Amino acid sequence: MKKVLYGILILLTIFLTVGCSKEENNKKENEDRANLRKITGQVIKAQLDASGNIVINEKEITNKVVYISYEYEEVIIGLLAVRDSKGDVKVVVNTCQSCGGSPYAYFVQVGDEIECQNCGNRFKIDNLDNLQSDGCNPIAIEDKKEEYGKIIINTEQLKKLKSKFENWKGPKELDIDF
Description:
This protein has 2 helices and 12 strands, in the order H-E-E-E-E-E-E-E-E-E-E-E-E-H. The protein is α+β, with helices and mostly antiparallel strands.
């Protein structure tokens, strides 16, 4: 009889521990969501040329981040574009290389920086051309060129990043064309 009572007591303890742990994880996740910064920039749908490249009109980019949504196989892949303090346009993939895959691995502008909503790391907008590969920072766009006031981005790299965006909760409204 004592063995049965001890067994029940052990099972009850395990059940309560696991249940409390799960409740604490849910509470932490809700607290984390409460700490997310508000997206202050415009969210637009990527404009594509006849070759399927993303085309960004440089005149439309200001010192306020513009979030660009590119849809590939029903997954939204985010980019962000912003003008730095010298007036140059910076465009990066809107997920953190290290945090990529996390729902909150996206960047929000905070003054002259962007901040990862997952890890909290910040990066100066002026330095977005000097990103480390495999670092804890936004992903640099490998194949882009500037022509006649337009930035043209080949989408092959973005397609390879699809898995990092499957659970992504970053800015991705698709109601405005660029």
